[in-house]
Amino acid sequence: MGYFCREEEAGARGMARGMAQGGLHRRALSGGALTAGSYAVTQALRLGSNLVLTRLLFPEAFGVMALVSVVLVGLAMFSDTGIGPAISRSPRGDAPDFLDTAWTINVLRGALLWLLTCACAWPVARLYGAPELAALLPAAGLTLLIAGFNPTRIDTANRHLLLGRLTALDLLAQVIGIAAMVVLAWTMRSVWALVLGALIGSAAKLVLCWAFLPGPANRFRWDSSAAAELVQFGKWIFLSTACGFLLSQGDKAILGAYLNLADLGIYNIGYFLASFPMLLAGQVVARIMIPLYRDHPPAASAQNARRLSRLRFGLSLSVLALLTVMALAGGPVVRLLYDDRYLAAGVLVTAIAMAQMPGVIGMTYDQSALAAGDGRGYFLLIAAKAGLQTLAFLAGAELAGLGGALLGQGIALALVHPLIARLAWRHRAWDMRHDLALGALTLLLLAALGLLYRQDLATLTP
Which residues of 397-434 are buried (b: 16+ CB within 10 A; e: fewer)? Predict the structure, then answer.
């Protein structure tokens, strides 16, 4: 017991020294830059490996892996207990009993998710007419079991925006996983290379984080008051992420019924290229906005409001510019990098980038609700967004094929923004000047791109 106390005290002193190294805004900017840089490097490595893998494997392999991803992400999101956000916002977020209880919950959740993956493998294989999923899913589901053992030191680093070492370790783990995929694909020439590479990457992250992140080691512990707080906050996160599945994976789940595996694989490549800006923004926002809203709410002072406004403008304009670049460069990039089997992904990059543009305007607001502990408001927003986007995507696909589905997605993102603004206003985080400026700029960009690519975009509708 004395050993653990000394280790916990040392971890707390190390965290205090980290907190003293600079103000929250400075650490937010530094952490955002680190996150963005790491994500950019990771995506560059994934692109390089993707180029190699598309030459070693067949398009159907990427379609199969898209379906595997739908199932794994779906199970993970339908069981998300909100441990990370809870640690970020809770006053007890640095207490060892709170962290160990959270880790215990995560381990149990990981084991349950793997068992569920095994149970649903055969029905999913029958549903999509892909018999190979019956064996692939249980193997790929081991990544969820492994992730359950990741230490809460990851969440503690996020809580205090001490992201340097965490970012480096996460990047190294992804490099290991990507390298394993390429080597295995070279030797196996099978979709199993992608599954085994993902397992190696997950195991690498677990080992690296346990070995090199500072702080006390987690152990199995159950504190009733900590569990009650986690469950109380986590119930809304659970419901929110269940709806979030429709936002992040609903397109692939729906298109799996409309497209063959080869075409779904091509769509997945187009999505991989086009979604880089929004996924990058999501990584940055998730890591820095809760601590900022928590410790420096914009309603507390004019200085806080000005700083958050500058940060919001910078993020929004950067992401909108990147989406515009992807829309313009989609066709040329695909023609340059991929062989003739994947050329149809070019126009998909343009269409997907355009469809995501309306979502840029409100991407920094929802974290204000989580920082204030308003899990219910956050859930209601995500539920409305998921329902509207899914219905619009389905209706568009039914009426006008893939092009109609993407158009429906973009319209849904625009229609849901008043609900986002209302939630932000309730927590005194809404910035009307930002929304008017970004809204006008988004409309101009969409009109210009629509005119420029109207013939290419017309090929997506039957």
Answer: beebbbbbbbbbbbbbbbebbeebbebbeebebbbeeb
